[in-house]
Amino acid sequence: MILVNFYIGSRYPVSRKRLRQTVEDVLKKNGVEKAQVDVSIVGVRKIQTLNETLLQHDGPTDVLSFPHHNKKQLDEIPLPTDVPPHLGDVVISFPESIKMAKKFGKRVDDQICFYLEHGLMHLLGYHHD
Asked: What is the mean pLDDT of residues 28-54?
């Protein structure tokens, strides 16, 4: 079972159904059948604050991910069978998604799903320099 918790302000018109499907597709494609993921869509100030206070990077960014467990630990964590282990959090900037969607000629939902997939891959332990 894959459980997705959303934290999305009402001013951000995003398809939760599409986001949930993206999470399920990415995790299952990477061999994860049981996990819990939190997805937040936020504004510039919130993502900038998180980026600066938690990662010590100046300014806003497009997506942040905060892993709680790595992929290997998901099967090792002793939890009740009806409670999936918490993989982590993905935080996406809605304004940055709009800006980049315009720049690349994409729909905003497509850009958000791109960022979501990127953040999920970080939660699974894939990183770039």
From this structure: 90
